[in-house]
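Appendix B. Chain record.
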Amino acid sequence: MLIDKSNIRVLLVCVNFNRDPDFDDLVAEGEELVHSAEYKLVHTLTTNRTVVDRKSFIGSGKVEEIKALCAQLEIDMLVVNHNLTPLQERNLSESLDIDIRDRTCLILDIFSLRTKSNEGVLQVELAQQTYMMSRLIGRWTHLERQRGGTGTIGGAGEKQLELDKRFIRDKIHTLKTRLTAVVKQRETQRKSRNKNGVFSVSVVGYTNAGKSTMFNALTNAGAYAEDRLFATLQTTSRKLYLAREHEVIISDTVGFIRNLSHNLVAAFRATLEETVHANLLLNVVDVSQRLKERQIEDVKKVLSEIDADTIPSLIVYNKIDLIGDCLPKIEYNNSGEPIAVYLSAVSNLGLDLLKQAILEKMAYSKLNLKKQELVYEPWKN
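Structure tokens predicted for this chain:
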């Protein structure tokens, strides 16, 4: 029987450590994550702290306050907009006697809800099993050691914890094996493209920056795009014609977000393989966002974690239609190399400039294109 998640009443807790000036934006992002997971957000509780409480993350006094608030508001689930340790999660669950979600678990809920492709399902399940593995310690300490065999025959059985750990380890191994097969298949396709000298471009960026909208505007791919966090969770690739006898393969990828746990990045490495092996990265940024510079750094952090931080990149400032006095343009460094493009994908403004900038970036690549070849021909698309 499917559970209607919209009936699950959620209390969101956001902790402001050391008076973070960006705290209001972080709270808004946490609320957006709850909505994206399709839970019913009843109330958001904010609190200030200087250090993390090792046992409960928020401190015993705040736990008692939350307990009373949960009873008053009939809360079904507590979501903490931070990553909790297994100990902190377990202590909160025991104190409050309700379901607990931290930031990573909430993102996994969204991934599980949105993923449709076979590869995506495998990656979400791998991330879930890896996350669950770290939460097992102490779950079954109330059980005595079981005995194997029948009657008095047989040695000491295994603890339930050990059985669960073995089950999850086996499942993780199976999932990794199946994902390896997917990666090998994609690697074969990639080698074929490289053999033919095809230039590859990957669209990366913070979640909800408009990557899929831009991808669709460039390629008419019809990829799923929606104004919500993590609308796209699988890689889609299409050909993009730029100049006579020159085309690129452009790939739309999963969006990034701050505090993305290492396990989540590792689990989705198969999807991010297109990013790792790209010749050029288009880092799409929502130019209307107050925290756009911080989001750029968050994306760079994830790119570094997957060893993609040395790949040539181009910043794409999207959504210029949402700010005043900003026209489509290309920015260049002192060497004349394009470093940024300003456009609006939804309004179809500046897309030709982006294509021209990609061509100019190709001139700095190993392809060594001749100057006369760097002419964008719009009739091709």
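Further analysis of this model is presented in Appendix C.
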